[in-house]
From TrEMBL:
Organism: Formosa sediminum
Residues of the FecR protein domain: 175-270
Ranges that cross the membrane: 81-101
Coiled-coil boundaries: none
Entry keyword set: Membrane, Transmembrane, Transmembrane helix
Protein name (record): DUF4974 domain-containing protein
Gene3D superfamilies hit by this protein: 2.60.120.1440, 3.55.50.30
GO MF, one example: sigma factor antagonist activity
Pfam families: FecR, FecR_C
The Protein FecR C-terminal domain, residue ranges: 314-382
Length: 383
């Protein structure tokens, strides 16, 4: 019997691949399905005719009956409710379905797209040089200076000279509605989410810690190993904590309008401290640092949900709408008002493409949660 956790993990990997228009390598190498089954599943997922046919059949599906059939084939935890997982891209994609479920039944099968002026986020940033001057970075503003190159999607630093006596800092600011990547001079790669700011040296000094600061926002790090830099550790500071790593991948979320700093370890090992407590994280673990109580909570999380933003997707598992709207407001540079405050805690589960318009995203959420909303200028009003 196939374990449900394996089914869920594989399906989310397929979701990420399809959203990025890449080959589903994890699926191709999986031993959960035969070669014939794999071919059939991928065909159902990508064939436009079959997708259109499924959309027409959507309203005829008996979800509870189908879920019961699925449970008989999978080792699903007894306390798992069908709507908590059927909405995730996991089951949606493996079964070749094109709809997502929320906590309530869908009454409409049509997604009506309005024509609003709200734009999808893009690759853009503002670079502040050591002399205080600023440079706009985007697809129409490329930048090149000795040792620095901006491509429109990322900015790359290379080591210049061997006389690292003093540190010279740059700051990269990502506005609402933006994202950007940076490759530091030690080959560490950093993906910055909307409304984020990173301070870092143009070059690091040998024999000293490689220290950068996430002033605010969210960033995903793939740190160049210390063994490549004579043992020099990599340190990341935020407003309330510091991380020390030797070479690893992790995500830090430290927005100014949130009361917690979330640090999630993807690979390797990191030490998280706030000068009062210290915790060593293992892969798949997340620390929550309260900026009010100044204490840590450690838990195991779904890594895919945490870092999906870096891979071009929004992935939510039983996430309250108030939290989802914070994510959407940063990416689409919009304001959100809950007139009906009861809707703030309504949960939604699904994997969505960041390239979709805000109208399309909202209609999907509406169809799964019976959410009523309207758009006025640059504001979403949820009623």
């Amino acid at each position: 019997m196939i374990k449900f956790s394996e089914f869920l993990k594989l399906s989310k990997q397929i979701a990420a691949s399809l959203l990025k228009d890449e080959k589903a390598k994890a699926f191709e190498s999986s031993n959960l399905f035969s070669s014939k089954d794999k071919e059939d599943i991928l065909n159902r997922l990508t064939d436009k005719t079959k997708i259109e046919s499924r959309l027409q059949l959507k309203s005829k599906i008996d979800r509870k009956a189908d879920w019961q059939t699925l449970k008989e084939k999978l080792n699903v935890p007894k306390k798992t409710y069908y709507w908590q997982y059927a909405a995730a891209a996991s089951i949606v994609l493996i079964l070749g379905l094109t709809f997502v479920f929320g906590t309530k039944e869908t009454k409409s099968t049509t997604i009506e797209i309005a024509n609003t002026p709200i734009k999808v986020g893009t690759d853009k940033a503002v670079l502040t040089l050591s002399d205080g001057s600023t440079v706009m970075l985007d697809s129409t503003n490329l930048y090149q200076k000795q040792g620095i190159k901006g491509t429109g999607k990322e900015i790359i630093y290379n080591v210049v000279g061997n006389k690292n006596v003093t540190l010279e800092y740059n700051i990269l600011t990502i506005p609402r509605g933006g994202q950007f990547k940076i490759k530091l001079s030690d080959n560490t790669e950093v993906w910055l989410n909307s409304e984020s700011q990173l301070k870092y040296p143009v070059n690091f000094i040998k024999g000293q810690p490689r220290e950068v600061e996430l002033i605010y926002g969210e960033a995903y790090f793939e740190v160049s190993k210390s063994t490549m830099h004579n043992g020099d550790a990599f340190t990341l500071k935020t407003s309330e904590q510091s991380l020390t790593v030797l070479g690893t991948s992790f995500n830090v979320k430290a927005y100014k309008d949130e009361t917690e700093i979330l640090t999630t370890l993807i690979e390797g090992s990191i030490a998280v401290t706030n000068n009062i407590n210290q915790n060593i994280l293992q892969p798949g673990e997340q620390s929550r640092l309260s900026q009010v109580k100044h204490d840590f909570e450690i838990s195991t999380v779904d890594v895919f949900d945490v870092i999906s933003w870096r891979n071009g997707a929004f992935s939510f598992t039983n996430k309250p709408l108030k939290d989802i709207m914070k994510v959407l407001s940063r990416w689409y540079d919009i304001d959100v008002l809950f007139v009906n405050q009861d809707m703030e805690n309504v949960a939604f589960t699904g994997v969505l493409n960041k390239k979709q318009s805000i109208d399309y995203i909202l209609e999907i959420i509406k169809n799964t949660n019976n959410m009523n909303y309207r758009i006025e200028d640059n504001k979403i009003i949820i009623e």
